[in-house]
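Q: I'm writing a short methods note and want an example of a predicted protein-small molecule complex. Could you take the sequence and the SMILES for zinc ion and return the bound structure as tokens? Please keep the output block clean; save any remarks for afterwards.
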Amino acid sequence: MKSRVAFLSIFLLAAEPCFCWGFFAHRKINSIAVYLLPPEMMILYKPHAEFLTEHAIDPDKRRYLVPEEAPRHYIDIDHYGKHPFPDLPRKWNEAVARFSEDTLMRYGIVPWWIQTMLKRLTEAFKEKNQVKILKLSAETGHYIADAHVPLHACSNHNGQLTGQRGIHGFWESRIPELLADKEWDFFIGKAHYIKNPGDFIWQGVLESATAADSVLAFEKDLSNKFPTDQKFSFEERNGIIIRQYSTAFSKAYNKKLEGMVERRMRQSIFAIASFWYTAWVNAGQPDLTRTVNKEFTPEEIKEFETLNKAWKNNTEEHD
Ligand SMILES: [Zn+2]
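A: Understood, no commentary inside the block.
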């Protein structure tokens, strides 16, 4: 029995690393984004919705393998002053000239990285390269979703500076897992063409940065009012007992945020579908019934396996 419990504990940890929007939310975000696309794109995306969902989390897995991966997921924008951060140039070359590439890498590059991904995806559409389109779409979705998480635009990203460790996973994993399927509305409409993707994503990042203050302050305020023994609960999951923010505390926090997590999730979905659509339009609206390179090569399949292995080994080591 003891060994079974240990095994389950490893499994559970492996399923829930605490990086970005939890794996649950990343998968959900990409899978819903598919349904905002026009029929000409849906014809390719819908039959591959499972791939886009499953590979929504590849960039997080890659963080174990590639050192330069981590800064692509966030920006500690408060390092550059105060909102609206006038000292930080929005264009990459100007930002490098002002702060150096090393500094930018140290504090995170998510708004620029998304624009790099958009260019790559546009090229993939021009080539009508199906494998590339799907892979880049799944991963672009990941980074866009991360840019919408307030604590991904804040140096106090896990409340480590204010005695609120754990708030990162609380906001982006616990709350959506508890409420997304039961209470939230994901009817979002249609993807839009984005004329200026740079401005669009910077606006999303600035909204995240502004929201980070409330994310932290409201949790602190609620913790002060909430009886300590009711803040956390011990709940059974897959046969083992785990400690987590209680349902009552989670719901109270969500109420205090006035639906912020749901709103950011919806905005992520809209932004992702719109970036996919924009890449396709900018590539000249290629006919996606006539794609080439439809099968993953053995090397690409091996790469997916390597990602999975690195991720599993690492989470088990941490156990
Ligand atoms: Zn991430």
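A: Remarks, as requested: The radius of gyration is 20 Å. Residues 1-18 have pLDDT under 50 and may be disordered.
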